[in-house]
Amino acid sequence: MLTRPATIAPSAGLLASVAAWFWIDPTKVGHLAFLLIAHPPGLRPGESPQMVEARMRGLADALTLAEPTVLLPDIGSRLFMHQESDVLLRLDGCDYLLHVPIGGDWVRFVCDGGTVTVVVGPDPLPVSSSLEFVDAYVTERALQGRLRLGKTRAAPPQSFRPTALGRSDGDHRTTPSTIGPSERRQ
To answer: Which residues have a Cβ under 8 Å from the Cβ of 132 and sit 6 or more positions away?
Structure first.
């Protein structure tokens, strides 16, 4: 009997520690926006690589992502645009939102109704990685079946109005932050 690897539900600490990369690519089904979430290298005291991987699997589960397949699963309305330059991701069973500062063409594409492929990578990825290195990371892990993916579209702007600020280095990678229950505004 095969057992499923352990997962750990997302926490504010995990959401504050992940990094995100974003881009738009032409695919067989047209242009898609991609949002990759991965953990940077390095461990906190008491952490092991297995714990980080279990947390990343928990994040993928909370986003209802699936293994790479020909047809990406629709993960429902869980992506919200905030202040025209930030993305918020709602996670199942989590009191926090993942806040990713993005902006630019990516946000315009998504606001115009473009599909977003959300990708969670279980392996560490340096924050300073070039898009070429990120492409190799995604390709290798997709072939290995290690990525978790799903598609979504931005929810209407009036459906969610939280408050938060983050930072972005403007180079297609960003440091997400979290928004807790007390910071949400309906």
So the answer is: none
